[in-house]
Amino acid sequence: MHAEGSLTEFRAEIRSWLEQNCPQEMRDGRITDDAICWGGKNWVFSSDAQRLWLERAAARGLTVPRWPSEYGGAGLSRAEEKIFLEEMERINARPPLKSFGISMLGPALLHFGTPEQKGHYLPQIARGEIRWCQGYSEPGAGSDLASVQTRGEDKGDHWLVNGQKIWTSYADKADWIFALVRTDRDAPKHKGISFLLIDMEDPGVTTRPIRLISGASPFCETFFDNVQVPKDRIVGEENRGWDVAKYLLTHEREMISSGGTGLSGGRALGAVMAQMAGEPSLQDPTLRAAAIRCELDALATGLTIERYKDMAEAGNGVGDASAMLKYVGTELNKRRHELIMSACGSDALEWDGPAGSRAADWLRTKANSIEGGTSEVMLTIVARRILGLPGA
Amino acid sequence: MEKLVKSQDETMLADSARGFLDDAAPVSALRHLRDAGRTHDPDLWQRICGMGWAGVLIPEDAGGSDMGHAAAGMLAHEMGRTLVNSPFLSSAVIAATALRQVADARAMDAMAAIAAGRTTYALAIDETHKFAPEATAMTAGRSGNGFRLSGTKRFVIDGGFADRILVLARAAEGLTLFDLPADRAGMDRTALNLIDGRDAARITFGNVEATGDDVLGQVGDAMAVLKPALEAGQAALAAEMSGLAAGAFDMTVGYLKERKQFGRPIGSFQALQHRAAHLWCEIEVTASAVLNAGRVLDGNPGEAALAVSLAKARATSTAQLAVMEGVQMHGGIGMTDEYDMGFYMKRARVGAEWLGDYGYHAEQVAALRGI
């Protein structure tokens, strides 16, 4: 807990640090996937400024502000992190680094990893040196995630992994994959899964991008053909990978949930829509009414994410309620983009028109309520685990 | 700002409130009152005052506990849960907050009387079917050193039994707030029986005499006093409606678990599970807006308009969803008077209109957010 005074000091300190260290080119408020550095062995920096920004932030632990400093973080409290993010937003700074290592694997490693695993992987994630992808879904295991068939045979000092993953985001760009692999075929389906870390350069790993309706290919198919995975690359216990997977999913869902609330840098959706449409204010009363309703819901959803973070810090993890945050946040994001498309009218229909990537952004949001667990799966989690409604 | 979680003290307050109300004012109390043809229960109000709740927003030197708006919201939430019929919002929240803006010796006495349960207040503001304080037409014409008030006020919640009436009128200098005894000559009160079983009056002012002493705050500057009072009332009403939604929801989920059709509990059907889960999400999102409004009123009261309107708008839509889903998921029994869901539905409709409906508060948010 921090006294108000020390938080005020912290704000002044972080403000002046940002002033001195965040390059001007990184203060353009661009927070879309294509503008942000994702790191990794093969990352090509879009500019010197992007490289500098990553190096400086990593040296200060600010790519992962809440992680302990021994693993490359800044050891900030939640209140301090909030101030850091506010100060970043104040100068429209891009995040220095974004990655699934930070948002998904890192929290799972912090919770389930061995000291060796933490000491090895976490600092590399914090410095943006390795890029991870997530090997969860399979052609036959979507909403029914625990029915994964990719199997790992015990060969003494390693597992021999064979199978196929799908919807592995950015697998073609990733250095490593964290994957759910069936290591006991006789156990009930939740009990025979292990959580393995696999080097994408290992012999037998191949990927193929999937072209989506947005024209982009952020997702891939990933194939494992007799891949040897050493035994020290398991997170958590053998056959207990489902616990790790669920823990990680709560973080993933929290991450996805915030997409709909902070897109416009604190500005109201209706104002952004009018600007995009080139109107002084929204002229269509029906559209304006929908924008206002969406604004109310976005403000309240943002507060809900804050409230759950406060609750998590007070000792009650977000847990199953991440399903609620994910459901509410992603459905909201889809609404926002439908409204933006309506406001822009035919301007938004050209792939490379004056409205830029509107259409691609709009189409991308359709995946929000599918990836990381569909809205329907989220509602079922709420109904069963939170409300205690009976199974069929 | 304080965090968006209940402090230990607040948790204790809410828990003790729930324990008290489950005993003293369950929904059946409202039913008994209605069946007896009454719209107000003075004994219950005295017991509530005995708990110290009437002083939640009143300074300690006027006999209050001064616990703030977030705490008032938690009490209102619990009262919403069991549909408590009391003048808590009119007296302990709206009138107390108005008087507190003035805080001279007379206002302190008036607050002490509210906290002790000796005086109840009602706010007379609406003149048409919708909340629009700025459009107030009732006149306060000059008459010697004083005023003469003429016009009609509608939907004066608790106005049928309140001891005193806060009334908004238009003087030559602008909107002016008067604090009048309810038996002042020329005030014609008609107590009306609302759908939610509570009291609301129509009050006609026929050249009612008022002096300068009857003015709360400054002549022509009602909003300095009234705006904080309205915001406090709107935030507490939002909290009450979030409690109402939670109460209706608990009943509904209980029914889903217990009612069997086709040989299994209806709560095992995915169609109903998803509706219930969606409703729970809406209730959680609204709870955040409601707690935030209380926190902002306590921490930064001059800048609370956005937070308050957000809370009232969200609470209105969530409460309405909760009661509609409640009746639908109960099926036929939800339509019967014997079952309590109807009480929730009627109170939600009254709460939706009081102190500004969804559209009113959505427009406030839109204006503040530049839409």
TrEMBL record, chain A:
Cofactor(s) listed in the protein's UniProt record: FAD
Superkingdom of the source species: Bacteria
UniProt keyword annotations, A-Z: FAD, Flavoprotein, Oxidoreductase
GO cellular component annotations of the record: plasma membrane
Annotated ranges, domain Acyl-CoA dehydrogenase/oxidase N-terminal: 52-129
Single GO MF descriptor: flavin adenine dinucleotide binding
Protein name: Acyl-CoA dehydrogenase
Protein's organism: Paracoccus alkanivorans
